[in-house]
Fold this protein.
Amino acid sequence: MVSTFSALCKTVAYGVSGLSTCYCLLKFGCSLGKCEDVSMEPTIQDGDLVLICSFYVRHLLLQKGDIVFSKSPYDPRSVICKRIVAMEGDTVFNNEKGLAEYVGKGHVWLEGDNKEASVDSRYYGPLPYGLLISKVTVRLWPPERFGFLDFSRSTRKSSS
Amino acid sequence: MRWMRQLVRGTLLFIPPYMAFNDIFFSIRTVDGVSMQPTLNPEGKNTDFVLLDRWAAANFQFERGDVVSLISPKDPSQWLIKRVIALEGDQVKSDSCFEEDVNVPRGHCWVEGDNRECSLDSNNFGPVSYGLITAKASYILWPPSRWGKLDKLAIAQGRVTTRENVDRGKVFFGWDS
């Protein structure tokens, strides 16, 4: 009876620990994400499965040109997927409003690759860095478009 | 040797649940800075420990007058603790040099320190997005003389024009999604 009980305790302890380890790996390391909007076409299309790594954001390793998941500033429950076009201290030309904007301290400027369909910093200005969730590193699915999404093309001219 | 192995194994088993619990439910932190005097750190030393309720913040369960912790919009590695003054849709009288009325946009709130002379808050950087709020500070744990719940503080009359009857999440100013 006693041995059954201790075995049960052990199982519960290992189970809880294992689940928490999974949670921590997904939360602080890498996890999967699904991009469900058209604002990053053609790089990421609607319904693509991507690998997202949050430690890039946590340890401030982001650079211009990276694709990130971020919380939407006006709707905290929804997540947006955009490319970092400028970081703090840069000046960006906002061709939607037709003026140059300065990206303040601790902020980033996000834009989608699909300029027509994307609602991004051109409409609501620079976003605080704290809203970023994780960096998109690998496009996993569909398999024919598998590829690393590294610093490749920053489509915007931004003068620093 | 056996007890050492057990100790190491126990620690290894304990760390992930601790981290997950801290991230999902509650965590404990010291308060640094004087911006929340006299509620927190009244002697000016960094002595106070507060219990942060992360679950409440993840579900946006905070109201006007609650103390919350947030990531600074100016510096992502900095951690602030402030009081919520106005929620989305409200109109608040800014306390900065301009003394103007500010409409708090959708998904944003207005936060201020209790110590108005010495606080970097929404009067400097404007309304902050809900997404930056990491936790609600619900209890003072240390020092024991001030142990207890962190109360809501009534906000000065006439500063905030609240909009209670508005369907939250559907008010917005300027920008239409």
User: Anything to note?
Assistant: Chain B has one domain: 27-161. Chain B touches chain A at residues 13-14, 16-17, 19-21, 23-24, 60, 70-77, 105-108, 128-132, 169, 172, 175, 177 (CB under 8 Å). Confidence is low (pLDDT under 50) at residues 169-177 of chain B. The longest strand of chain B covers residues 133-142.
